[in-house]
Amino acid sequence: MAEGGPDAGSAPPTPSMSSLPLAALNVRVRRRLSLFLNLRAHVAADWTALAEEMGFEYLEIRRLETHADPTGSLLDDWQGRPGASVGRLLELLGKLGRDDLLMELGPSIEEDCQKYILKQQQEASEKPLQVDSVDSSIPRTRDPAGITICDDPLGQMPECFDAFICYCPSDIQFVQEMIRELEQTNHRLKLCVSDRDVLPGTCIWSIASAVGWWWSSLMITCKARNVTSRLSLHSASLQVPIRSD
């Protein structure tokens, strides 16, 4: 029976040791590497020969010589460079003839790599199912642009008023009287009263900008204590200009 390829629904292949980053090597392996390579010997390549194979320059090697553990510092510096991996480290050690290191530390290196692979697989399985970018927070439709209850939701035909009434809750009776005098008489003015005409939740700054932009050129500020009689209100209402548009 001919051998078939892997099934389409099978799990992704386990990464080989040669492709793993140098971060897979734990402290124990690094210390044992230092014990072998920090020792200067004429018969075996030391850490300086390994540094040259890794692409380190003379001044960089001289700087590492000042460290208490030059091999450990070398591995730390090299693991951030392109091409650094466990497989590449083993390849360089074999090139330098340090088969003794490969025989001595091979099992420990393989154990560290297996632990690293299992940890990566566990972290991948614990990731949430949703994608990194949550698109549900992106508005699918344009937000309504209206400010008053009769505004065009698209903001193309805003509702117009003759005057905006600026008042505080204590002046509500005076506002009601003003509505009767200016809207329900022959004046037929259209007033904008926040509690009656503005949509709930509208930002106060949106209301203020609309007053000066398209609603009206007149804002009436109410102070009920300054109105002494209905006649004074009626006289004041006659001064309100009616919009021509």
UniProtKB/TrEMBL annotation:
This is Myeloid differentiation primary response protein MyD88. Residues 159-245 form the TIR domain. The keyword Cytoplasm applies. Adapter protein involved in the Toll-like receptor and IL-1 receptor signaling pathway in the innate immune response. GO terms for biological process: defense response to Gram-positive bacterium; inflammatory response; innate immune response; MyD88-dependent toll-like receptor signaling pathway; positive regulation of canonical NF-kappaB signal transduction; Toll signaling pathway; toll-like receptor 4 signaling pathway. It is found in: Cytoplasm. SUPFAM superfamilies: DEATH domain, Toll/Interleukin receptor TIR domain. Its main location: cytoplasm. It comes from Delphinapterus leucas (Beluga whale). GO terms for cellular component: cytoplasm; plasma membrane. Pfam families: Death. Residues 32-109 form the Death domain. Transmembrane segments: none annotated. Homodimer. Also forms heterodimers with TIRAP. Binds to TLR2, TLR4, IRAK1, IRAK2 and IRAK4 via their respective TIR domains. Signal peptide: none annotated. Keywords: Cytoplasm, Immunity, Inflammatory response, Innate immunity. One of its GO terms (molecular function) is TIR domain binding.
